[in-house]
Amino acid sequence: MSIATQERLSAVVNALPLVDHHVHGALRDDPTDRADFERHIAETDRPGVGSWFDSQLGIAIRRHCAPLLDLEPLADADTYIARRRELGAAEVTRRFLDATGTSHFLLETGYRGDEILGVAEMVERSGKPVSEVVRLETTAEDYVRTGVSSTQFVVGFEAYLRERAANAVGLKSIIAYRDGFDFNPEPPSTTEVLSAADRWFSRMAAGAPVRVDDPVLLRWLIWTGVELSLPIQFHSGFGDPDLELHRADPLLLTKFIKQVEPRGTQIVLLHTYPFHRNAGYLARSFTNVTFDVGLAINYLGTRAEAVIAESMEIAPFDKILFSSDAWGPAELHYLGATLWRRGTSRLLASWVNDGDWTEADAVRVATQIASTNAERVYGLASN
Ligand SMILES: [Zn+2]
């Protein structure tokens, strides 16, 4: 009886089309060797002591990805890498993207875009619709490179952003990386923005790289984004060591969220681990907040079910989204989907078997998280 429930729910959840609402392109070229591949599954630029295959993600790749390359589950890492190189990047990517069961990719294009497939190439490789999410900081830096003066930059940025995001479904902020969520929640005044832009342009004139990290400008970019009324994704929680993780706790955004709420702009908290319970509280408390536990699901491997369970504690189920946050090796696109399907079906089956949920409840909620919540937040159904 209980096994039948588990099997039925697995079959249903495995077949659900997924809207991957925060994902990046797959690698354009093969990793050159095992060490290069391992750098893509580390989420740190620091060397490990041994192999990154000796981590939850590494073992999950051997367990779940090896069969898609015609290997036995848990094939050893060297065999895996050799087979991957034999098949080549194009074939490997096609196999993994096909197997995700994704119906719509929302692709964020603003990070190291030359190494990964862009929107048109992801459409070609996956055969699925791909919509773009535009990164605010990258857009500001692209605008600077057009040769505008600091005053033109301040006056013209909103129009430049509107043009850049004309076909986008959302915006993305990495203020968690460039500053932290403990920023002043008020919109900055024009005087403040003009003098911050002056300082930034002077630094660049003196040879500094085109990289926006001034706290006033970073929050002005966000407030400019709020004017566009597109959902704004915020990197929060887990990421690489450029972060100061304690300043990426989304609870620090509470005053900002309260300011934005009356305008109706959607705040989408990405990743959120290990602050996913805090994100669940914000999603419950405020009308304009949704969140996911993407990225963490991949890196937690067999423990993904635990974080999925914790994400489904205080948050209403219509405020939780699915994402892989895959960047680079298409194993990450595939694992994001597979570990979510596996963890979610096991978790929901356990609740059904305990008599606490009906099977219909389980299927309805899994479908919300898989696709319908993202379709609502990003207005995809009407696109
Ligand atoms: Zn991302």
What attributes does this structure have?
single chain, 383 residues, alpha/beta, TIM Barrel, 2 domains, 7 strands, binds zinc ion
Question: What topology emerges from the helices and strands here?
Answer:
Layout: H1 2-15, E1 18-23, H2 34-39, H3 56-65, H4 77-87, H5 89-100, E2 102-108, H6 119-126, E3 130-135, H7 136-144, H8 150-164, E4 170-173, H9 175-178, H10 190-205, H11 215-228, E5 232-236, H12 254-260, E6 267-271, H13 276-285, E7 289-291, H14 296-300, H15 304-311, H16 330-353, H17 359-378
Parallel strand pairs: 1-2, 2-3, 3-4, 4-5, 5-6, 6-7
Description:
By secondary structure, the protein is α/β, with parallel strands linked by helices. The protein has 2 domains: 2-27 and 91-378, TIM Barrel; 31-87, no CATH class. 50% of the residues lie in helices and 9% in strands. The chain has 17 helices and 7 strands. It has helices at 2-15, 34-39, 56-65, 77-87, 89-100, 119-126, 136-144, 150-164, 175-178, 190-205, 215-228, 254-260, 276-285, 296-300, 304-311, 330-353, 359-378; strands at 18-23, 102-108, 130-135, 170-173, 232-236, 267-271, 289-291. Strands 1-2-3-4-5-6-7 form a 7-stranded parallel beta sheet, sandwiched between helices. Helix 6 links the parallel strand 2 and strand 3. Helix 3 (56-65) packs across helix 16, helix 7 (136-144) crosses helix 8 and helix 8 (150-164) packs across helix 10 (190-205). It is globular. The model has no long low-confidence stretch (mean pLDDT 95). Bound molecules: zinc ion.
